[in-house]
Amino acid sequence: MKRLSLTTLLTPLLLLTGCGGGELDNLEFERISVSREVAIDKSEGAPRCTVDLQMDFLGEQYGEVAKAINSAVVNKVFYLENLSMKEAADSFANKYCRDYVKNYAPLYREDKADKKKLAWYEYQYKVSTEVSQERKGVLTYFINLEYYEGGAHGISQQLSMNFNKATGRQMALADIFVPGYEQRLNELLLEALQEKTGTKNLDELHEEGYLYSMNIFAPENFVLGDDKLTFIYNPYELADYSKGKIELAIDYDDLEDIMK
Description:
Mean pLDDT: 89
Number of helices: 6
Helix content: 25-40%
Structural class: alpha+beta
């Protein structure tokens, strides 16, 4: 899956987008950076909460397309509406840090004598984004989440959003497939998982730790590539945490009978 990372670029990213008449539109993404850090209390060496948000957005010059894409991303990442990307990131970071102190400082005061428990209170929340163009007229926006909120390990997730570049409208599976597509798509995904894991049937998948307590499904977390459709499964969605992120790709030729 071809991706272009924005985190490595020092200048704005120019994406060439197909449009009517064979002309090209340049979509110039800008980036906002929001960082916050707060100690759980004023004692020396107290655990800290850090928030680091690196978000790409379209400027106002792109009108309704920018509004649609930016708003969808803000809602997906921050569960907020009617705010700009910068306003939403600031609001989220401030609230996350306030809630950290409010909710966990009392617990920390009870545990601070036990040095083994101090690591439980080292909270962090990171977001970075990427933008990719493979299929004509489609913009894929990737959201990479990493957070630790106590427990045995942190959580990493990748979310994808596909947008129609002409309208800014987010595309769902129902926009791509004909009604009743689910059964056939699940069959293809099961075949893709078996091929990826070198298994021959569901029993062997279970033995390898896949689909042990869930059935195969098609998530809305997908990427419309140039010649294939890729589904992204985050930890715990198809297997336990140790399997990590799983990507299953299906060629469009194999999907022809259920695509619109």
